[in-house]
Amino acid sequence: MAAPAKFKEQKKFSPKEIYAALEKNFGFKKFKGEQEVIIQNLLDGNDTFVIMPTGGGKSMCYQLPSMMLEGTAIIISPLIALMKNQVDSMRTFGMEDGIAHFLNSSLNKAEILQVKEDITKGLTKLLYVAPESLTKQENVDFLKGIHISFVAIDEAHCISEWGHDFRPEYRRLRPIIEEIGVVPIIALTATATPKVQHDIQKNLGLSDSKVFKASFNRANLYYEVRSKGPDVVKDIIKYIRGHQGKSGIVYCLSRKRVEEVAETLVVNGIKALPYHAGLEAKTRASNQDAFLMEDCEVIVATIAFGMGIDKPDVRFVVHVDIPKSLEGYYQETGRGGRDGGEGNCVTFYSYEDIQKLEKFMKGKPVAEQEIGKMLIQETVAYAETSSCRRKVLLNYFGETYDAAGCGGMCDNCRYPKEKFEGKEAMILVLDTIVAVKEKFKDKHIANVIMGVTSTAVKQYKHQELELFGDGADENEKYWIAVIRQALVNGFLGKDIENYGLLKITPAGEEYLKNPTSIMLTRDHDFESGDDDDDMVIGGGAKGGGGDETLFSLLKDLRKTIAKNQNLPPFVIFQDPSLEDMSIQYPITLEEIKQCAGVGAGKAQKFGKPFIELIAKYVEENEIHRPMDMVVKSIVNKSGLKVYIIQSIDRKLDVEDIALAKGMGILELLDEIETIVSSGTKLDLNYFINEVIDEDKQDEVFDYFNNAETDSVEDALKELGEDEYNEVEIRLMRIKFMSELGN
User: Is 307 a residue whose pLDDT tops 60?
Assistant: First the structure.
């Protein structure tokens, strides 16, 4: 076995030689930021630690030294895609293909042999290696026998479990590097809080290295957080159409969501491709190349999988789901505007996303949950803040941003949020949590404050509490926001074992003893904000509001059809379907199927007179139909719905279906109602006949046949709560809708 290569004293390079090498190899005449001093430090044989935001030019800090020094530089990177991208980039500078190679799991044996041959011949100046490949003994043995100029560790934050992309393999790098040879190390990252920075230096033995920390401020990026509603994909399509012809990235939380969003963008005429770790390597590489070559405008990717796409002119970065840490968010948004041009970072935020992230942590070790909880809480604080977003973001990375605000380069500075004195609201929230003995989640707390007698409130007799209903003048959204801001201010914490249960912290106890003024914020209403274009949405309504005149006409038509067919109006279409028609103005059967609660069956059976009325109304009133609002959907491939339909076809017990999917019976009925209201016919007689007497069935069926609405509450009042329960009424309503409406 060859003895480890020792770092040989390299020649000293003058600034003149460094500039000459920069122009010769890359065609540039000057450096960006601190590139020159970083490169000089590495060329002098010193360990170097670089913290530089995405777009700051980190790659050049090791690419140029690799070209100037004898031997091969080892570049450790966790992203296979980025390796390929950077190798291709190095080869485009008029250099031989052998100048740069990568060594990872995507290569076959013949390709690996070619890489090793080029390195042995001295052709290769940069060798990109995945951390997993570096841990293989055969590769370690090979690298021991070659002349290594230095080792660069890219994405160094992966070393820290407090980093957003923790990779256990990174923690093993220092002993492996020492086995290969004693050479200078340069560690580079685009994101590092003081805590992560300390972890990196300690783990890599770089405590004495020189640290170069560039400002994290990306002045050309515009940060915005929008409220996330049920039609978020429609909002994204509208946004992308407003940036026609520009390159963008859309991040999602899961692979499934990536596929769904990419398909929906495509059917709506947007050139989009998916990108996630579950795709075959060839497909992933092909999709990346299509994006780089501008054969596709938008790449849709998982936030959990680093893309490593080094494209300078990404003009917008959209997050469908909020990332699990601010470091992840910063790095992903940092892919926008790397050329210094326009870069819009729009995130759709819903607290339900946070609850999903919290749910993912359940079952993990408590220490890991603690870290995850703190990282998520920082993200919540960023999303909820009314302060300048840039200021909050830079503060997270230990950087003070002196400006009062960013001059309109974030939504909070451009559209300031309404503030209100929140002392009384905060006290009420904290007192309520104490009163229910810190054993309930946010929605239950909101119900108690508002005076809502939900099942759980009645079960625990919380309607008897003295403060029950003290906040009845505000809605649930308001109280949930106060609770979230109590979390952000550190007055509340969440139980680790039963995550979501709200607990008073020492700071919360102190606040209750000595309450002081606290300014809280209401969410900015992006639906009607000035950030939308001035497009007229039917009859002058702006944003998501429907056309009231058309809605009234549609209701009259529904009443006429119902009378002619001797059916209750709600069997034809329910109000939410008519409301959506008054927003979207569908004039074909294909378009009406995109409206809420209108499946293929409903469209075929009842759709024609409705689209004829709408077409006539649009023409007579010279309404510009905003095609931005008519979003084509992809076929619903929900595995749950398919499972439910197939199970009912096989006549499985409804309770068994719910049990198999870990659902409550009411939750399952919600899903069945959605299926039936969209026009799919289901036969539940086999189950209904077992659980409801025939006389009762007839009585409920007759009730719905003559009812004005399909309200379960009204039915229970009319038929008697002593005689019937909610499940029976809902089962019969499903039977009624399925038999008469579908």
Answer: no
